[in-house]
Design goal:
The protein has eleven helices and ten strands. By secondary structure, it is of the alpha/beta class. The chain starts with a helix and ends with a helix. The mean pLDDT is 91.
Length: 262
């Protein structure tokens, strides 16, 4: 009963939270293994509630996937990211690409790509500064694979990169690589939990495969420098994880980046 009460509160509170702009973007940096520079970030959403509590996506994303409101939230987060880039552009700051998650439900709408492009044009931001992430499991569970492929191809056609998130978590990963044109492969963090020589060999070979298909590789969930050095030896492109920073607010991110780049 308590679980149902909390879920109802989250579902029914969506419209008010949107009006009050309680959903906030947080950014987690991506570090290049070539020269350890910050060359990107992933945007995640947090719900900062009036009582001071902060809810992470695991608490509400699945509920909004279920009732379809995730589409509204995705567009909101994307626009907040584009607005953030526009503000940095106006201040003369160096712009870095930002990756944004999108729900598989966008495949239902024929005007999805146009909506994203309209937001970019409104703020005068180059599409090359954005990347759309979809999870491997969502793609595999989708019964609208051809529609999903059309949407992803549409993003790439207008200059927005596409990333396949949580790669390696499901069982049919290689079939997705055959069927989809993607720019970035994000290795699932489970590869880096309880590591062994066998798991590192798998990671090394996946990186080589991705590079042969002209994809960049991001290792996420990295927590220590030993992993960083091992991934550099494997020619992994980018690192994302607590070893450098947890997801932080947009304002904190700029201060953190400035300090990091000193």
């Amino acid at each position: 009963e308590e679980k149902q009460r909390v879920e109802n509160e989250i579902i029914n509170g969506f419209d008010l939270a949107m009006r009050n702009r309680e959903f906030k973007i947080y950014l987690q940096p991506r570090v290049s293994l070539f020269d350890y520079s910050i060359i990107g970030a992933e945007a995640v959403v947090r719900w900062q509630r009036p009582d001071g509590t902060v809810m992470i996506p695991d608490a509400f994303i699945s509920l909004y996937e279920r009732n379809g409101r995730i589409i509204d939230l995705d567009f909101f987060v994307f626009e907040e990211v584009v607005k953030f880039l526009a503000q940095n552009k106006k201040k003369g700051r160096k712009l870095i690409p930002i990756s944004v998650n999108a729900s598989i439900l966008h495949a239902r709408n024929s005007d999805t790509v146009e909506h994203y492009l309209e937001i970019l044009n409104r703020y005068g931001i180059n599409p090359a500064l954005l990347e759309i992430e979809l999870t491997e499991t969502a793609l595999l569970e989708s019964h609208q694979f051809e529609f999903v492929k059309q949407v992803l191809d549409g993003f790439r056609r207008i200059g927005i990169a596409v990333a396949l998130d949580d790669f390696g978590f499901a069982y049919s990963s290689l079939s997705l690589l055959k069927a989809l044109e993607v720019d970035t492969l994000k290795l699932d963090r489970t590869f880096f939990l309880n590591e062994s020589k066998r798991s590192r060999n798998i990671v090394c070979n996946v990186i080589q495969l991705a590079h042969s298909l002209h994809m960049n590789v991001v290792a996420e969930g990295i927590e220590n420098m030993e992993q960083v050095h091992a991934l550099r030896e494997m020619d992994c492109d980018l690192i994302q994880g607590y070893v450098y920073s947890r997801p932080i607010s947009a304002d904190e991110f700029e201060a953190w980046r400035e300090q990091y780049e000193k």
